[in-house]
Amino acid sequence: MGNTIQGALAEYLVVDQHALIEAPGYLSDEEAASLACAGLTAWYSLVEKGQLKADQTVLVQGTGGVSIFGLQIASALGTRVESFSSDFPIFALLLKQVVLRGVSVGPGLTIAQIRNFISSN
After folding, report:
1. Measured distance CA(57)–CA(49) in Å, rounded
2. Which end of the chain, C or N, has fewer beta carbons within 10 A?
3. How far apart are CA 67 and CA 73, in angstroms?
4. Confidence tier at 83 by pLDDT (50, 70, 90)
5. What are the boundaries of each domain within the chain?
6. Pick from 46, 51, 36: which is nearest to 1 by CA?
7. Which phi and psi angles does 49 have, rounded to 5°?
8. Is residue 83 a contact partner of residue 104, using CB atoms and an 8 Å limit?
């Protein structure tokens, strides 16, 4: 909602059933709502407004929700993703779970350090 469906800030909203999906049972209502918010923010920024293409590079900062979605969306579109975070353990685990075509890391970290951390966890 908020992109093609008006009323993202409404308290109550009537929509067609095909505009919605069921949240996984292990998520609370708040957690499920935040996924849609972070995911749509990343999608709108990269794809709708940014017109992201496969030959471009995306810089993703941190390991928050919008950054994670942005990294996944950009990677799925075949772009080069550059990412950095000061939270090394979370960042390394994130790289382990998401296949990236290109990765640059922040100052003081090397790809070898990240690979070493990933292989030990």
Report:
1. 15
2. C
3. 10
4. confident
5. 28-119
6. 36
7. -85, -45
8. yes
